[in-house]
Amino acid sequence: MAKKILLLAGDFTEDYETMVPFQALLAVGYAVDAVCPGKKAGEAVRTAIHDFEGEQTYSEKRGHNFALNADFDAVKPEDYVGLVIPGGRAPEYLRLNKDLLKIVAHFFTNNKPVAAVCHGPQILVAADLVKGRSLTAYPAVGPEITAAGGNYVDIPADQAYTDGNLVTSPAWPGHPAWLNQFFKVLGARIEL
Asked: What is the C-alpha to C-alpha distance for residues 44 and 36, in angstroms, rounded to an integer?
């Protein structure tokens, strides 16, 4: 049986930050349960595409419908070896769900691998999990990390940062580095 990864999604999750890790983890042999509070397997979340086109912040366009394949209410965090938290706008409201925060805390309490990107660390801040940790995020999330007692690491968008079991990246251009570091923390072996 394949090892299982939990992926937290919500409406207007960032398209690439949701679909790319979902597909990449499947490609290397993990089972990935994509869930959203209040939704069941077979339902979908709408995604948003954030792009960097020269303005002072990212632009946002409507993305795809991303199909969920598991029920949030059935999640037992002890069944998973790792957690993926995409960015986009979803984390700003997902962080209000107390059950979701308890699930996320399980991964830290048990030192399981966690990958968060872009605005995903907003959920970690809300769960009070960044104090004393070094991590990165989309730059606009940096003040939240600092205010919560974390050490915000300012790196280019195409890079990633690992602190113990936590792998973070500022945005989707960092996917190669972010996924590479997450695979290492998971102990994944990829044969070429």
From this structure: 9
Among the listed residues 36, 50, 106, 118, the single catalytic one is 118
Asked whether residue 84 is domain-assigned, the answer is yes
Q: pTM for this one?
A: 0.96
Q: Give dist(CA 52, CA 22) in Å, integer.
A: 22
Please write the tens of the pLDDT for every residue from 32-72. 999 999 999 999 999 999 887 888 878 888 899 999 999 99
Cα first-last separation, the chain:
22
Separation CA 101–CA 106 (nearest Å):
9
Amino acid at 174: G
Q: Count how many domains the chain has.
A: 1
- Indicate the residue type of 78: E
118 is catalytic: yes
- Which one of the listed residues 36, 50, 119, 175 is annotated catalytic? 119
pLDDT tens across 132-190, in order?
A: 999 999 999 999 999 999 999 999 999 999 999 999 999 999 999 999 999 999 999 88
Looking only at the bridges linking them, the beta strands covering 13-14 and 114-117 are unpaired
Q: Is 119 a catalytic residue?
A: yes
What residue numbers bound the domain in which 178 lies? Answer: 4-186
pLDDT in tens, 73-90: 999 999 999 999 999 999
Helix (H, G, I), strand (E, B) or coil at 48: strand
Query: Domain for residue 14, yes or no?
Result: yes
